[in-house]
């Protein structure tokens, strides 16, 4: 009996030693710590072999929506074993901002063994739908989309791209909130760009006038644009954060139908007829305030403070020269185009899948205090 007990105990001891040699102790296991937001893209650049057997729709379903901040340098774009055909479905290339995004994407992709197939929808969602259909028929390797308004109009055709295993990245404009089958959107943190402008102008208005009781007019582009709404909401939250109890009245919200200085001139002309004493003008896009400044000078309108989002050098110069534009949220098409192209190449060449569909550039507000560092008269934008 004793011999049997001893034999059992020896057997148990041997089994325990074998098991311990095949597993890690807690102290030997790698620590699992969340990556900082700014490094979230970089930490996932290694090829994800777990995705090799998954359909693109399945991969899309595993991507979250908590925003991460990215730059082009965060992405390991790898190298391609064959020439790539990457489609760019542009809502328009008729304005300087969108042309620069396309130019930067083209520069990065062509330098990395990719041919760019560009289609300009000229702001027509019907045209863009047909162009995307053509890209699917051509079996392109990937597609970068700047959607026309409203973005919901191209959800159906983008679903076809997903089912055809053509990866899609949106740039600048978010896709419809009810559509989820895409890798991600590379763009600006438009809410916080608007917030920074509203907060700065609100504080400056209080310094100059003793309170934030004021009238505000908004110059906008096209009704229903998701980017415009994010900037608008951010601006109002920013200005109200200075004094939640202030009497801030929105006396006008105008739509120019396009994103040009000419639209700004016309909207400002109508505004100054109805409200010549308006205190603050917020331009959803800064060509609007460049036009508004010209119209204010023509009509001798004084005492108005302006702010906007985008960062074109024509608007930045007004701050630089000490004019009535006091704050601009920087929506940088150079950084954005490079980051979008790098994200697509990273997926195609390395299997990189972002941790979030919302890949944002860090928000910066240009003001008289930092304009010397930010204004570049030789910028292409």
- Counted beta strands: 13
- Specify the helix fraction band: 40-55%
Q: What is the topology, as strand order, of the major beta sheet?
A: 1-12-6-5-4-2-3
| Count of separate DSSP helical elements | 12
Molecular shape: elongated
> Which stretches are low in confidence, meaning pLDDT under 50 for 5 or more residues running?
1-49
Examine the coordinates and then state which fold CATH places here, giving the name of the CATH topology of the largest domain. Answer: Rossmann fold
**Biggest β-sheet: count, sense, barrel?**
7 strands, parallel
Count of discrete domains: 2
**CATH architecture label name of the largest domain:** 3-Layer(aba) Sandwich
Structural class: alpha/beta
- Rg is 26 Å
| CATH homologous superfamily assignment of the largest domain | Response regulator
Which series of helices and strands comes N to C?
Answer: HHEEHEHEHEEHEHEHEHEHEHEEH
- First and last CA, distance: 91 Å
What is the CATH class of the largest domain? Answer: Alpha Beta
The amount of beta strand, in percent, is 15-25%
Average pLDDT number = 87
């Amino acid at each position: 009996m004793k011999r049997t007990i001893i034999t059992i105990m020896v057997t148990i001891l041997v089994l325990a030693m074998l098991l311990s040699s095949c597993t890690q102790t807690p102290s030997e296991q790698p620590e699992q710590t969340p990556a900082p937001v700014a490094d979230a893209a970089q930490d996932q650049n290694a090829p994800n072999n777990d995705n090799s057997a998954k359909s693109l729709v399945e991969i899309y379903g595993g991507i979250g929506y908590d925003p991460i901040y990215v730059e082009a340098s965060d992405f390991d774009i790898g190298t391609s074993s064959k020439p790539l055909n990457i489609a760019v479905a542009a809502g328009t290339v008729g304005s300087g901002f969108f042309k620069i995004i396309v130019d930067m994407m083209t520069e990065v992709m062509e330098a990395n063994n990719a041919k760019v197939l560009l289609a300009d929808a000229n702001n027509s969602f019907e045209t863009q739908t047909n162009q995307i259909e053509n890209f699917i028929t051509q079996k392109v390797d990937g597609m970068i989309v700047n959607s026309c308004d409203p973005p919901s109009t191209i959800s159906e055709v983008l679903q076809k791209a997903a089912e055809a295993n053509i990866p899609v990245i949106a740039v600048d404009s978010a896709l419809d909130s009810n559509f989820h089958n895409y890798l991600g959107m590379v763009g600006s943190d438009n809410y916080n760009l608007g917030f920074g402008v509203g907060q700065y102008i609100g504080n400056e208005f209080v310094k100059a006038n003793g309170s934030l009781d004021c009238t505000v007019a908004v110059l906008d582009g096209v009704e229903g644009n998701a980017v415009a709404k994010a900037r608008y909401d951010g601006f109002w939250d920013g200005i109200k954060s200075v004094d939640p109890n202030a009497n801030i009245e929105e006396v006008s919200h105008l739509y120019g139908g396009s994103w040009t200085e000419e639209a700004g001139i016309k909207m400002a002309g109508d505004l100054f007829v109805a409200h010549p004493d308006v205190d603050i003008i917020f331009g959803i896009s800064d060509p609007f305030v460049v036009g508004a400044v010209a119209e204010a000078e023509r009509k001798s309108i004084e005492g108005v403070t302006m702010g906007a989002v985008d960062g074109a050098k024509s608007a930045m110069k007004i701050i630089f020269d000490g004019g009535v534009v006091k704050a601009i949220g920087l929506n940088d098409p150079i950084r954005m185009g490079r980051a979008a192209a790098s994200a697509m190449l990273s997926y195609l060449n390395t299997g990189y899948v972002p941790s979030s569909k919302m890949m944002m550039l860090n928000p910066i507000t240009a003001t008289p205090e930092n304009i010397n560092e930010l204004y570049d008269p030789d910028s292409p934008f």
